[in-house]
Amino acid sequence: MKHDAVMLMGRIHELTQKWLRRELASAGLPGVAPSHGDVLALLFMKGESTMHELAAFAHRTKATTTVLVDKLEAMDLVRRATSVYDARTKVVVLTERGEALKEDFERISNKLVSMVYAPIGKTGGERLEQLLNKVLVSLEN
Amino acid sequence: MKHDAVMLMGRIHELTQKWLRRELASAGLPGVAPSHGDVLALLFMKGESTMHELAAFAHRTKATTTVLVDKLEAMDLVRRATSVYDARTKVVVLTERGEALKEDFERISNKLVSMVYAPIGKTGGERLEQLLNKVLVSLEN
DNA sequence: TGACAAAAGTTAGACATCTAACTATAATAT
DNA sequence: ATATTATAGTTAGATGTCTAACTTTTGTCA
Predict the structure, then answer these.
(1) pLDDT digits (tens, 9 = 90+) for A28-58
(2) Which residues of B touch A (CB under 8 A)?
(3) How many domains does one find in chain B?
(4) Which CATH number fits the domain that encloses residue B129?
């Protein structure tokens, strides 16, 4: 199915995901997927978060988020604890090893953004974001 | 930062994939993924194709393509045969049931394209394609 | 011609992801 | 106060995807 813009976005998305995996592996995190990165990203930004918040931020289901956090916990990058205010809620926190990755993640993230924006420049990038935003908002309704 | 082009393309890609799955299910093809659609699309366009050609067109590995064709064969939408000229090569052909889906696929494909282009118009669509093309070409090198 | 490399395809094992069903806890309503 | 409903999270099973190893067949070259 050659859907023009749809097909182009799909290809770009897949290439960036693949690039991120390679980059994370090079940073000493083999087997870490971009979605794991999304989980960590929220923890870097706002500190401790619930499974629910992480799922919403990463655009993944609760079930998937459980598995993602399982893996990060097994790697000793995050830790789970039961909330004091609500026994249903789990609070996820970065470990020391997790905190230590913040700079690596920012470096990789910046590198990806500049790779994507390089061929179209600043104005092209802004125009691209405008168009994509309109498309996304439209699809979400 | 949170709304950069990479993230937007990822979201749009995931939403369109999900939409396609629903649409294919509604067309009497539950469990058929967009990647199966890509396989069928090449068969609609150029007729019989090898596994190698299908993999390249769908941007999937040989292993994945084997599984995709397995499923389509189990659904009696395509058929495999060994090439007369090269015993290593398998030739994949549409069955009668597979051929019958062509119109449904074109309808769904057109619907998706118009959904995506609707909020940005013809000129916006062309500009979007230009920008995406530059980004993709750049990433592929 | 005969050994070895290349190519087409499949199989095995792993993983991220989803939906559906489940447990446990909290909130609501009668 | 108790029963019902809602919410947070996990588990189970299925699926599309990948890499790596394998089989079979074809091509190459000394």
Answers:
(1) 999 999 999 999 999 999 999 999 999 999 9
(2) 3-6, 8-17, 19, 34, 37-38, 41, 59, 105, 109, 112-113, 115-120, 124-125, 127-129, 131-140
(3) 1
(4) 1.10.10.10
